[in-house]
Design brief:
Shape: globular
Number of strands: 0
Structural class: mainly alpha
Strand content: under 5%
Largest sheet: none
Radius of gyration: 17 Å
Order of helices and strands: HHHHHHHH
Helix content: over 70%
Low-confidence stretches: none
Number of helices: 8
Amino acid sequence: MDVNQITALEFLEAEQKAARNGIDKPPFRRLLSELQNLPKAQQRLAFEFLAMAWRALNSAGDPGQLIAWSTFYAKAIEQQKLQEYLFWLEKIILRCFERLKDLQIPFDGSCPYSLVLWSALPFLHRTHPDKFRVVLDALKRQCGEEDGDLRWRLVERISGRQ
């Protein structure tokens, strides 16, 4: 397998094989190691994972793992492509947050969509504080009144990290 040309789907298949079989762990670790020196491949993977996450979200799936990998490789995104990446990441965050309301369950960090929020929001906070504030304000607006929305607990926890 040419690591420089690996697709997000191939990457996920290698990850799943490594999780199932101990014999596949060293090749997956080698893949991760080789990718460290390939910023173009990292950038491509970040966008591929992001696109897969959007498709998963639109088919009622939880794109948590996809967003986790996307934000992991997003550090390699070139400046001229960064705004496009942030645009889609914001859309995914807001859609996941919207879906949490539909679930009407207390947010405890292990519910659906939690991995999206716990990987994407800290990424924004660390790397793009202005965008983080814009997204946080949008999350607050989605919640409306504090008393009626279980997601306020999450917004308060996120706000406390600033």
